Amino acid sequence: DKANYRHFMAKEIHEQPEVMGRTLARYVDVTAERIKLSQELPFHFSDIQRISITACGTASYAGSIAKYWFEQLARMSVELDVASEFRYREPLLRKGDLAIFISQSGETADTLAALRYAKTQQVHTLSVVNVPTSSIARESETVLQTFAGPEIGVASTKAFTGQLMVLAALAVAAGKARGELSESDEIRLVRELLEIPRLIAAALGSEPQIEKVAREIAKSRDVLYLGRGTSFPLALEGALKLKEISYIHAEGYAAGELKHGPIALIGENMPVVAIAPYDQVFHKTVSNMQEVAARGGNIILMTDAKGASEAIAHTLATIVLPDMAATFAPMVYAIPVQLLAYHAAVMIGTDVDQPRNLAKSVTVE
Ligand code: F6R
């Protein structure tokens, strides 16, 4: 049931405040302002030397963002792979370490094969899945469910932010268990997580503006997405979302890589979506935007009020998102990224919920 929406994807994008609320209720003790997870895990984070994260597509970008969180909040080293590479690489896993698998469907063939390989290496396996009865959930030692509810649109939206919420809670739990975060750090981070549903609701308010920007995108043959830090995997996600539902060619790049090649593409005909919350690397991204502007490139900037006032580069449009602490910004910046792809596709007239050549669950490799 699409309720009053034109597509399942639109409905699912708009469900995200609710989804985040449900996921939070499971993993956060709201009154104590603590993460609930630590007691229920069959391992102690202090015994883990390295985490490996494996997933495909959008789920792999959630894993890529989580890598920044585990490093920053828990000082843990993380290796990340797409499942199709992991399974045939037969990577070296140390007995007793932790392997995390992320999958909406829980049936993705490559991710399942990667999980089965990990189990032969005697590591702890933990899956972040949306379907609790799925193969990946059944075969993992620990299952952390995302409470996104059924996702019908082929392009993953609410499952992605749900995965981010679970992984954020897990990274905070890891930081606390390893003594990298104090009790007051944990409380501060939990408060930031509890703000996310409200911030996502506010970000959804930018939809009318994004619809206008999407007209520019819909006219383009190629689009470049740039970001630094956790905004880099989100740039990859933005490019994936746009290409899969609008069939416009898009690429995501770490903003700092611009001058190592992609800058050659910049001209009037290729819009550049810059994802840049006002964080530690904001000014670095701005200098990349200036390089784009100086070559006649059209910039669509996604930032907050402070970022908008300090961006000092000409933009085609600036989408101003709510102010928030930077750590968990990807959960909020995912919204304009999804909406931009959605509205571009609607304008082009593609089959948004069932894009050509794609299946919701990739059960063959
Ligand atoms: C992108 C998308 C795919 C999936 C990927 C993994 O919008 O939906 O890239 O993220 O096929 O699927 P799951 O999460 O079911 O393992």
TrEMBL record:
- Enzyme class, first EC level, given as a word: transferase
Gene Ontology annotations of biological process type = amino sugar biosynthetic process; carbohydrate metabolic process; fructose 6-phosphate metabolic process; protein N-linked glycosylation; UDP-N-acetylglucosamine metabolic process
General function of this protein: Catalyzes the first step in hexosamine metabolism, converting fructose-6P into glucosamine-6P using glutamine as a nitrogen source.
Q: Name one GO cellular component term.
A: cytosol
Q: Which reaction does it catalyse?
A: D-fructose 6-phosphate + L-glutamine = D-glucosamine 6-phosphate + L-glutamate
Organism listed in the record: Bradyrhizobium centrolobii
Q: Which residues form the active site?
A: 360 (for fru-6p isomerization activity)
GO MF annotation: an example:
glutamine-fructose-6-phosphate transaminase (isomerizing) activity
EC number, as in UniProt: 2.6.1.16
Compartments where located: Cytoplasm
Q: What is this protein called?
A: Glutamine--fructose-6-phosphate aminotransferase [isomerizing]
> Can you give the residue ranges of the SIS domain?
41-180, 213-355
* Subunit structure, interactors included: Homodimer.
Gene label: glmS
List the keywords (alphabetical).
Aminotransferase, Cytoplasm, Glutamine amidotransferase, Repeat, Transferase
Chief subcellular location equals: cytoplasm
Q: Is Transferase among this UniProt entry's keywords?
A: yes
